[in-house]
Amino acid sequence: MSRVRARVDHAVTAGTFSLDGQTFQVENNVWVVGDDAECVVIDAPHSVEAILAVAGDRKVKAILCTHAHDDHVRAAPALREAVGAPIFLHPDDKPLWDLTHADDRWDHDLSHDQEIEIGGATLRALHTPGHAPGAICLYAAELGSVFTGDTLFQGGPGATGRSYSDRSILEGSITDRLFTLPLQTVVHAGHGDDTTIGAERTRLMSRRILSRSRRLRGEEATP
């Protein structure tokens, strides 16, 4: 068994998110996983320079996209050109990718249970549709971490209600694919602070119990 040399590096970069005719100011996390020699970049938000500052002088082996909303992939082609690394994306997110990069394409499809090795650690892709049809999370068992994009945050599931999203599918993905991970697994999301699988499982289950109780009493559940 190879020794785990990989670590998780992080920065925050700011820009915009646009969909369905609306634009919002957002801050995105930049996650880089690797050792002193090579790394992978998870999502490519806003600024190539900000991403390169985290990667440093390491060889970037891959750009792994958790989904294709523009605030997660806008800089992906430019980053690919800068570092010579291929872009990976789940093909179900093609309609969203095309909104930002209609004349370009990612390099490799990313599929459920696909494994990417880096620095003695393995990132396993988990297809978690709902926030976006091709959304994936990346689970690194050796690092006790999962990179969830916009599928799961500190505070609960990602947003739905916009094009290509579905709340019931999202909650099913979280329950079936994420809540089966060890409870102590650290959640590194696309926005905001870290949390754990255990904390978010408890939070979501508590909400479901409260909602069911209110329905039984004939009360309207809060969103």
From TrEMBL:
Residues of the Metallo-beta-lactamase domain: 27-191
InterPro entries, sorted: MBL_Glyoxalase_II (IPR051453), Metallo-B-lactamas (IPR001279), RibonucZ/Hydroxyglut_hydro (IPR036866)
GO molecular function: hydrolase activity
One Pfam short name: Lactamase_B
Domain of life: Bacteria
This protein's UniProt keywords: Hydrolase
Keyword Hydrolase among record annotations: yes
Record-linked Gene3D superfamilies: Ribonuclease Z/Hydroxyacylglutathione hydrolase-like (3.60.15.10)
Keyword Chaperone set for record: no
Name of this protein: MBL fold metallo-hydrolase
Originating organism: Nocardioides pocheonensis
